[in-house]
Amino acid sequence: MKVFGFGLIFCAVAHCQSSIVQTRTIALIPSANPTPTPIPTPSSDPSSQHNRTRQSKHVHEFFKSFGWLQRDRTIKDGDLPAAIKKIQKVLNEPETGVYDERMETMMSRPRCGTEQPYNETDATLIGTAPHKRYVLWGPKWDHTSITYSFINYTGDLPSSRQQAIVSAAFAQWTQFLPISITPATAASSKTDIHIRFMSMGASESAYAFTNMIADGLSLSSGLINITFNDDYNWLDDRMFNFTAVHEIGHSLGLSHSKVENSIMWPYYEGIIRPMHPDDQAAVHTIYGWKNPRWKSIDANAGTKAIVHVSSSTTSTSSSAIDGLYQFRSTGQILWYNTAGTWVSVDNNKDTAQITGANGVLYQRHTDGSIYRYATQGAAWQNIGGPSESTIDIVAAADQIYQRRKDGWVARWSGTGQTWTAIEQPSAQISKQIAVTDNKTLWNLLSSGDVVRSEWPYSNGGWQIVDANAANVAIAVGGEEFYKLQSDGSVVWLDLTAYLWRIIENAGSVAIHGIGIYLYSRHKDGSVWRYTGTPDTWEQLDGVASSAGVVGDRKGAVWELLASGEVSRLVS
Ligand SMILES: *[C@@H]1O[C@H](CO)[C@@H](O)[C@H](O)[C@H]1NC(C)=O
Ligand SMILES: *[C@@H]1O[C@H](CO)[C@@H](O)[C@H](O)[C@H]1NC(C)=O
Ligand SMILES: *[C@@H]1O[C@H](CO)[C@@H](O)[C@H](O)[C@H]1NC(C)=O
Ligand SMILES: *[C@@H]1O[C@H](CO)[C@@H](O)[C@H](O)[C@H]1NC(C)=O
Ligand SMILES: *[C@@H]1O[C@H](CO)[C@@H](O)[C@H](O)[C@H]1NC(C)=O
Ligand SMILES: *[C@@H]1O[C@H](CO)[C@@H](O)[C@H](O)[C@H]1NC(C)=O
Ligand SMILES: [Zn+2]
Q1: pLDDT (tens digit, 9 = 90+) per residue, 157-195?
Q2: I need a labelling partner for 192 at 20 to 30 A (CA). Which of 10, 119, 224, 517 fits?
């Protein structure tokens, strides 16, 4: 019970009722007295002059990349601890004011040298959380057919390969946008964006930068240069590919984002980060959306449900089972394969439900029996015999769970048809369960109470997290927990401050979480995605006929309409 000093009460089955009463009196919403975060002991030795110089350089780079420091200013040594605290706030780190290992690791990474224009509001904001979102430069392109050309190439790899990489990098952005970006031809009157390679000297550690010249409102054709530092070896096309996508983001009018997983975060970790909804939201704000924003991929009045099977972040590779599935009233299950074709993976009128996670798909029959599908084309394995007590099944992490009419939750043992019961507060029927990536099992009970148990769910391991008759649904995404209340508000459990925080109050009727994403469907049928910034949701669809939404861990979204039509978000 180290984490929850507040409002969470250990609940052994025998004395649950009294615990529930107690939690009601200290209901978690809202509280003005969050427990302070413990401060870890600093790990770096402040006496090292070499360290201090390097740390100061890193802090300056960080500040300039976010527009927190005027170009000609430096941070005085005495002000460094406060500056470090400001960075720690963005990094979600304890604010110790001490430059630690994590900062050193992150700031030693390849980085972009583009400096953001000084933003006084942001720079002087001390004590409150800086806004965690994309930042727009201001000016944008005033035409929709944009051109680019290379001023010169690096000698590190063939120019045709450089052209292919840059062209693919532009496509990363234009796939969501109602604009085109093409290589300039001899006939083009003007080239908008120039690409060049330049040696920047030993003291410059940035991999690339983009300089931006605008007439105030519009980016100026021919004056936008993406410059790659030719002192680095660009033979590593992983680094080249990612750097190009990031710099192109600047050339479209984006500054650095404070969302660490976004393309526009200024540090690279040597992997190719996929386009993040924060990046998409940013360019959509500037250039609008493709019309239509959704592409229909199936239309069958019999389609009852869609399910996305997505390998968890802890698994090393994606599985051949991963992907989108639909379930029809005839009992048929179809998989949307990588070629964009629906392939039948089963067709049995007894099938009542499908679920899946982490490279495995499951189905439940009307008689309560349960089947598992782990290899495309292979036979379904029967892992649960007929049982009148089975209500439904839920796949999460590498587990499959069933909710039972006797009020218990059980999980498959991994062999034969043996299931292990997970003890829970007695006489409390489970209304819904949800399981995080690290297998923490959250259980919404019929009373509205929310309890949770951590893997491996030892007896008596349930903790009461909330007691509120208004709780109607729960969702998890990664390790985050959310609940929906009967008044239509969506509430997030802030595990750092130990508080419930209302993140939406707009008539939600359903929530769906996956990885870092949370979706909310409103009474009016519209579908929204949480941006991670308080009170800020992005509308994905405004139609009144949405019947369900699912997503994957990279931000792709599919919607099921009441008519049975299935669509994919393209913009
Ligand atoms: C330098 O700082 C790092 C952390 O940033 C720390 O691990 C290391 O011990 C420090 N070295 C000296 C000599 O202070
Ligand atoms: C400056 O920063 C604030 C707070 O982060 C932000 O709301 C505002 O849009 C920024 N201004 C400009 C011109 O980017
Ligand atoms: C590319 O052109 C720039 C001038 O824009 C020059 O400084 C640089 O040395 C050239 N790079 C190569 C590889 O020729
Ligand atoms: C962009 O690159 C061209 C060619 O190297 C150069 O002439 C021009 O000055 C650069 N523009 C800016 C704003 O750096
Ligand atoms: C980089 O982009 C090129 C061109 O699209 C592609 O062929 C190559 O596989 C990419 N490299 C990596 C590591 O993804
Ligand atoms: C799993 O995540 C929960 C938050 O949902 C956290 O409280 C718990 O400590 C995590 N458990 C492990 C084993 O990481
Ligand atoms: Zn940048």
Answers
A1: 999 999 999 999 999 999 999 999 999 987 767 899 999
A2: 119
